[in-house]
Structure formats: structure tokens, C-alpha cells
Amino acid sequence: MQPEAENLVQSFPIGSGRYHLCGNLPTSLPHVRRYHGIDTILDQPVAIYVLTEAVRNQVEVLESAQRAALATDPRLVRVRDVELEPAFIVTDPVEGVSFDRLIEDGLEVEQARSIIGEVASALDNASRRGLHHLCLSTEDIRVTVDGKVRVFGLSYESALRHVKIDRDEHGLLAYDITDAKALLDLLYYGLTKRWPGKAHRDSQCPLNRRSPGFPGHD
Prior knowledge:
about 220 residues; disordered C terminus; three-stranded antiparallel β-sheet; single chain; six-stranded antiparallel β-sheet; alpha+beta; globular
């Protein structure tokens, strides 16, 4: 039986024992507990996302994460491993400042273009391997202290949020179209500080998961 994520404690070996939990970290992913962890074999820091029993599609989420591990673009936060008992995903640590925070701090237009361009290029590389994001948000895009762009949540975040894409009109291209539309909206937001279709007085980005209405918002 899967242990409750809330009962896991610091420095606690999890699953097979290769990974140890070393402290709680915040996350907006639904029904997930995020931890700073250690890969005890490689002696490297990792991020560990424990799926609580409220995640009814755990197998689907883990399979999506396994597929995401095939991505090789360094701008995509790497999935290192998954385990089933208890269900969790291991990734490289997610570092950097989120896109929405950068905008709040006065991101320049050229910087916004450059960041979204890097994200588009990374997702294009993923698409060539049959991988897509499908629910890209401002929080999924981060910039590290040395200026590198990182994209979090490829493939498995959409499974966590139960995102379903209608392929009736465009077939498999619907996945590319979904990511492309998200990129355009994010670019518009980055350039204008306003979300498409919203007045300046009501410009909060709906693709920030802290906003009500985002898929999986609690």
C-alpha cells in the first residue's frame, strides 16, 4: 500500500532506497508533494515529486514522465527516474526565476522575445520525438542566474492536470498547435504585460497556476 505523502519525513529513503527526501519544497502541481532529494548512488541533488493517492491516474502520469525522459534538449528539465511504490517522479532540480516573476520585475521586450524563442526551440526539439507539453504556463518557464532557460513539466504535467486535446480536426498536429498557441499567448504577455483579451486593469496571467481556472487548481 502506498504511504501517505504527508507522512514522509526529512532524510527519509523512499521507494527502492536510492533516493532520499531531504525537505519539503513548494509546488502548484495538483495532489503532488515536492521534495528536495538526494540520489544516493550519484550523490547528486534531485527534485522528487510524490503523487498522493488523490492522483487517480498515477500509471498514466508515470508513463508520461518516462516518455519525457527521452527528451535530450538541455533546456528541458530532465526526468531522471520514476518509481511506482510509492509513485514518484525524479527530475533535475528546478532552478531559476519564473517567467511571471521576471515580468513583474520589469522584463525587457527583447528579453521576453529571447526567452520565449528558447522555449519554442526546446519544444520543437521535443515534438520531433513525439513529446509535447500541452499546458505550458508562466511557472513552467524559468531563467537561471546565468541566463539559461529551463522548461519544466514536459508531457507529464498535462497528464496530472487531465488535459485532453481534441484531435478531430488536426489529428496529431493538434498537440503542436496547442503548444504553439500557449507560446504565442505567453509572448504577448511578455511583450505587453497584459494577457490577450484582458484589459490592463485585469491583466493577471491565467496561465499562472496560482490563478483560479487553471486546470488542476485546488
